[in-house]
Amino acid sequence: MNTESPAHVVIVGASLAGLRAVETARDSGFKGRITLIGEEPHLPYDRPPLSKEFLQEGPPTTAHHLPEVDTLVDDPNIDLALGTRATGMDASNHLIRTSDGFEILYDAALIATGVRARVLPGSDRLAGVHVLRTLDDAGAIRAGLDAGARVVVIGGGFIGAEVASAAARRGRPAVVVEAAATPLVRAVGTTAGAALAGLHARHGTELHCGVGVTALLGNSRVEAVALDDGSEIPADLVVVGIGADPATDWLRGSGLTLDNGVVCNENMYAGDDVWAAGDVARWNNPLFGRHMRLEHWTNAGEQAVHAMTNLLDPLEATAYQHVPYFWSDWYGRRIQFAGLPIGEPTVVSGAFDGDEFVALYREDDRLVGVLTLDRRGDIMKYRTRIARGADWESALEIARKRNKSVSHA
């Protein structure tokens, strides 16, 4: 590892993590050259609204570009390479190859290439079949919704649920197809997954669980989705939400360790003056004593700040300790989660079949996770306690006090 301040930093990935890394470098007083490589032609933009406000009926309300992008445009010592893919890396020689044929030398690099949405085999031959990852994806899905398309969502995860919610709020409920018996089991557990699935039924969305997709039917445009129970669902718009994989293909042969992402130590260091952040980074989170890779907007920003700080001063590098957090909006309801979904949760306020709830997750005697529905004032209290390593009894005491205050409100 080079312990001197780098003269040239290359950041691969121009979404939130890449932008936060640039901001951190400049805010830290780094005046050297920065090259930011981004596969999309757009300046960094806000991704979470793409599956939320952007799909709502009426004029788009999303402010596409993050306000901090002026940092990129106005700084003469920042080279923007948008619409450019990184195609290879030689980490030992500090070199990155790009799709336009250039080879870029660097003193230190930060990888923030995120993930690629999984696709169904053969789906690229049919118009009307989309994933939802980019601004262009969201624009195509919105156009289908505007045209009154019959919507089928493949995958019962959070992104798919938000698309279904948008369709329902336009008065054309979608059909959601989920291969597992219960959606969201890995994300929140079986009982909580079943409870959240109930929101679909309450708002007219048809949910098929425990059934797989065998084919997308149509000539040049999708017309139906064939299921393995022999049924067919008519469709003009199919949104595929079956997960994503870290965007590391270009790093094969780079010399870095790849295993469900770019493998880093607790400081976000991957080796050979390379650091990583965001959805692509798999690191040892000392707060939980686990290796993890997160596909969360909050983590991408916070992790990029930490990784760039360490990159600029590696001798003073510190461990990145993070309590995962994400939110999702379904049918006008706010779902929030913090921590890890270990085991099945205990409802400590409200009820799974009610209008709101707080559910806690434990590992041995430690609070490790919290899931809430329409309890925005609770989630960060518990997230703070998780970060402090709160025990289970102290978590229950918070719930008792909160329930008492709510009952007297």
TrEMBL record:
<dbReference type="InterPro" id="IPR016156">
    <property type="entry name" value="FAD/NAD-linked_Rdtase_dimer_sf"/>
</dbReference>
<dbReference type="InterPro" id="IPR050446">
    <property type="entry name" value="FAD-oxidoreductase/Apoptosis"/>
</dbReference>
<dbReference type="InterPro" id="IPR036188">
    <property type="entry name" value="FAD/NAD-bd_sf"/>
</dbReference>
<keyword id="KW-0560">Oxidoreductase</keyword>
<keyword id="KW-0274">FAD</keyword>
<dbReference type="InterPro" id="IPR028202">
    <property type="entry name" value="Reductase_C"/>
</dbReference>
<protein>
    <submittedName>
        <fullName>Reductase C-terminal</fullName>
    </submittedName>
</protein>
<dbReference type="GO" id="GO:0005737">
    <property type="term" value="C:cytoplasm"/>
</dbReference>
<feature type="domain" description="FAD/NAD(P)-binding">
    <location>
        <begin position="8"/>
        <end position="304"/>
    </location>
</feature>
<dbReference type="GO" id="GO:0016651">
    <property type="term" value="F:oxidoreductase activity, acting on NAD(P)H"/>
</dbReference>
<dbReference type="Pfam" id="PF07992">
    <property type="entry name" value="Pyr_redox_2"/>
</dbReference>
<dbReference type="Pfam" id="PF14759">
    <property type="entry name" value="Reductase_C"/>
</dbReference>
<dbReference type="InterPro" id="IPR023753">
    <property type="entry name" value="FAD/NAD-binding_dom"/>
</dbReference>
<keyword id="KW-0285">Flavoprotein</keyword>
<feature type="domain" description="Reductase C-terminal">
    <location>
        <begin position="325"/>
        <end position="394"/>
    </location>
</feature>
